[in-house]
Amino acid sequence: QVQVVESGGGLVQAGGSLRLSCTASGLPFADYTMGWFRQAPGKEREGVSCIRWSVGRTYYADSVKGRFTISRDNAKNTLYLQMNSLKPEDTAMYYCAASRLPYAAEYVVCRNVYADNYWGQGTQVTVSS
Q: CA 79, 45, 68, 88 torsion: positive or negative?
């Protein structure tokens, strides 16, 4: 059984930083594209960043380029999202997901925001102005 669990959310002032973590169990971690998604109340879900480890490719939404960095530690089955220069508009529930298909293209995973991936329960990020 695949389990995806996020942690690291919280309340931070604008300009601050947070690092989200996501652990995945029950699948060969290194073979599966993983990503971070977010959804604010009343807004559509957005693919924030995804990473396809097998070819070392990453995808970032335009809204976070230059501020967020995705990384993964395959030895620990853990995905990270380092978020710097946070803005109030970054406030949302952040979800970690693993593609059900191995080696899926990172931009495909991030753009199919309602795909039948393995999803975590989410962690709240709130940025105050």
A: negative
